[in-house]
Amino acid sequence: MTPFYYNAFEQGADLNLNKEIYNTLKNSHASTDNIIILCIGTDRATGDCLGPLVGEHLKSLMPMIPVYGTLETPVHALNLEQTIHDIYSKYSEPFIIAVDASLGIPEHIGYATLSSTPLIPGKGVNKKLPAIGNLSITGIVNVAGFPNSILLQSTRLHTVMTLANCISNALYWCFLEIQLTEQTTTVSRMISPVPIPKP
Question: What is the pTM of this model?
């Protein structure tokens, strides 16, 4: 699937991202019972703290949704495999939304991407890590080049924060819509008229 691109600096980008995430989750029959948010990255490098920032926002806004990867407890190269193992050990058939920073071409810096394919973390800095996610969201924080590790260290925090806010808003609104839909469906079933038996 070709990723969708959203310029986080443009007004309404979070709303457009939200709509596409919602449609994807709806078509995948995912629910609040099996969705897991996995935010990958570390707070030790500006360009790589996108994931933990998104995780930090969502964990406080959506306590009902399991969120892995925050500023306090980041998920990174050293503990990613163990975290994935923990998720699949704890949850049955989880639908994982993976979030991570990425590098790209100059014209795409500040863009969020959405894809219905697994995320390949560490690809931008030549690290071999397991692909993960039923749905992947990335934020392009800087231009790809050599050495990429230095680029992540010199990334503008403003760009990362703008992307983190865009992605966090989109996911938060999406889960509010899903939750409202599930509650409405439950109420409708409860108040469905009971057929009156014929005499």
Answer: 0.88
